[in-house]
Amino acid sequence: MKVMFIGDIVGNVGRGALKQVLPALRTKYIPHIIIANGENAAAGRGITASIAREFFEWGVHGITMGNHTWDNKDIFDWIDEEDRLVRPANYVAEAPGQGAAVIKANGKELGILNLQGRTFLPPIDCPFRKADELLEELKKKTKCVLVDFHAEATSEKIAMGWYLDGRASIVVGTHTHVQTNDDTILPQGTAYLTDVGMVGSKEGVLGMERKAVEYRFLTQMPVRFVVDEGKWQFHAVVVDLDESTGSARSITKIRWTEEDWLLT
């Protein structure tokens, strides 16, 4: 089974790139299941029901989230009904939505688990212990499980990769929007990448207009960050899984720019 995971989709530029590029990526890599992180999809903060529906119409089968999950208040109206979207599982038990799900597409099944880190992010329940709790339940339903660890600290992400080696099929990081170059298959068969990257403007700072970010660093004054509208970059990863064991056979990074796309 081939799984494609797409990094944080940021704002209008990111959504436009997804719509434009995904058909070609499906032809090139032939993934059975496509998962995308959508926590920055609505103007850089959160997601809406209409955006989620667009992603599904374009060919995404499941959506993971992160620390901006609740930024668009309409999510409270529909998250409990949308079983193809997961938010960090280590939020408090009373939080709406679900932290794990089994996605079915093209005759295949993939468990997805969303976790959020605690280093340099708001303190919530332990992602490691939550992984212990929920992975066992997911593995009863399918041997193939993807974990999106939405975290700031590289060390926390790497620790999670080693912690879940042999238990999860794929452990990928999101949140920092910069694709790392440490894609590997760990000794017990887990495909790992510290951060998948992002889909959004490559001319801003992590997808945001750079002038506002520069002003913040220069003055330490509060400033509203706005999604940059420059040329896009598209970051994702494709993992080939052995369905009989849940182990990864290969992991391939995808790194396209708008200029690359125009030359194809």
From TrEMBL:
Its cofactor is Fe(3+). One of its GO terms (molecular function) is 2',3'-cyclic-nucleotide 3'-phosphodiesterase activity. Fe cation 1 binds at D8, E39, N40, H177. Signal peptide: none annotated. The active site is at H68 (proton donor). Belongs to the YmdB-like family. This is Metallophosphoesterase.
